[in-house]
Structure formats: C-alpha cells, structure tokens
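Human: You know discrete backbone vocabularies at least as well as I do. Show me how you would write down a chain together with its backbone fold. No explanation is needed for now; the record alone will do.

Assistant:
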Amino acid sequence: MQYLDTRAGRISLPAFFPDATYGAVRAAGFSCVYASGLPGLEMNSYHLMNRPGAKLIKSLGGLHGFTGYRGAILTDSGGFQLYSLIRENPNYGEIREKEIIFRPDMGKEKLTYTPEKCIQAQLQYGSDIMMALDLCTDPSDPDEIQRRSVDLTIRWAARCRAEFDKLTAKMENKPLLFGIVQGGANPELRMQCGQKLEEIGFDGYGFGGWPLTPDGKLWEDVLRMAADAMPEGKIKYAMGLGRPEEIVRLVEMGYDLFDCVIPTREARHQRLYVMNPQDANPDGVRRPDGKFFRHLYIMDADYCRDAAPVDASCDCELCANHSRAYLQHLFKANDPQAMHLATAHNLRFYGRLMELLRHE
C-alpha cells in the first residue's frame, strides 16, 4: 500500500478529498468527514482570499485553527478560478507574462496575483498540501496557446518553488508543494512540462487542464499522457475529478489523489450512491463497464413506504438508523437533516470505494 505523509498525518492511497470551498463541507459537519474514512479536504484559495481573507485566517491559527478541522488540508493555487473568470469575460482581467491581473469590478479595483503571492497566501492558510500557480487551458485550444501555457507554468512553478524555499527555510515541519502538468492534448508538451517540473522538484504533480470531452466524457487519452509525464514514485493528483467510475479508471492510469464536488452536490439533489453486491460483481469495483454501483433517487414514489436502508451494506449514520421512506419524508418536509444525512452517506460511499481500491 502506498502512503502520503503530511503534517496532518499519514494518508493511505488512493485517497479522495471532498471539496470544502469556503472551509466547510456543505450540509455536513467535519464529523461526517471523519466517519466517512476520508483523510482530508480540498479548500479554495481564491474564494478564501476574498472571504474572509488570508490575513484573518492566519490570525486565527490558519485553516486548521479557524475551522477546527483536524485532517489534511489541500489548497489550490487560485489560478484556475482566475483563468476561468477571465476566459468567460476578458474584461475581468488579463494573464501577463509575470502575473495575473484581475478586475472583478470591471476596471475599478484590481488584484495582481503572482506566483509569490500564491505561495504566501497558502502559507498563511497553514495548508498541508499546496499547489503551484499554473496557466490552465482547454485541451482543444490551439498549440500556440498550449505552448504559452507550458512556458508560463514552468516559469511560474520555478518562482513558486523559490518563494516556498525562502519562506520555509527555518520551518521544521514543512507543507508539501505540488506542481501542475499542462500541455493540452499534445503529448510532447505534456512530457516537456513534466520533465521541467521534475527538474525544479516537487512533492507531487497535478493534472492541469479541463479533463472532460465536449460531450462530458472522461478525456482518457489526455489524462493518461499527463500521468505518463509525471515522475514515477511521486504523487499523481487528478485535480477536480471524479465520479466513482472515473476514479477507478484513473487509479489504473496511476493517479493517487482525487477531489471534486460531486458526492456532496449529488446528495443535495437527492441522488445517493448504492454499492452493488460484490458477489454479483466478480471484478469488484474494477469492472470494465464501471457498474459496481448505482444511483438511487430518493424522491421516487417507490420509496415513500420503503423501510429498507438506502444501502444495506453501508455503515453510515443514515443507513445504520433510518429508512429510505424516512429520508424521503425529510426532503419533502425541507428538513435540513435530509441533506445532512444524504451527504454523510455519499461521503461514506467514497470512503468505502477508496478502501476497496486500496485492498483489491
């Protein structure tokens, strides 16, 4: 079994981190995360920078002190959010050679975001795993855009590394710093980016770029070429992924670490995961067709009198104590416990999935 050692403890791999964008898992407390068996959370650097602010978070003991969460905390660089907003509306800012200029108020007050500020903010957060600033692209973007992305990503990564080394020089227990491999759908650019980042030296490497095809399917060729470009023996992080069946495929490609909003968002929309009986699945969760689980939409009329748990094989708070009929009733009554229990269940499903992948 592989491990990732962080300041917050040892993490067994593969591992999944639920998204806690503003420092909280929506509709669920941290007790649900602990009970799920998931070892960490992903938090959003850009949104936390806006609210409540890096300085305030630092003054209250970093993200661990501010939130009270005891597991590992991974923060993104904030670059993806800025890139997405500027791509959506160029009036919001521009991506320059040395920094990103962002004008959320359409030309009034501006934010200048540099690789150095990216590192400074994440150190103020007290993150256990930090991401270097990169320039994101879509795999369908032309080669000239991909080449600029790779060039800036490498240069910005070197500046992040230098700032990190300077600010943590006297720190005994340092956080981990990951680089991000860009290059779009061009295998040569992906390999070039991976090799240059390896020369700079990082504790792990993340997939950079949009991972889905225009019709919403996993862009497997691009994800595989990115994994191949990452150094062997280092953590490979599939950022922003994935659905359960995607995670299984990505583990086969060599990825170790995952995060996404899907399990918590699905729970709020009454969609729960049910593990299919393993005796009916001789391949376990590694079925080629991905059908080791199914979705259960709790608002279906069939469940209004159903006394069975959502998943008889699950040991979460919901399945151990309540029926499908009761959960449907809570949703119909708009009781906040409905989303809490559904979220606890979906998180536990992901915890069980990781356990199965580690031991199969």
Q: What stands out?
A: The longest strand covers residues 176-181. DSSP finds 14 helices and 15 strands in the chain. Residues 143-167 form the longest helix (25 residues).
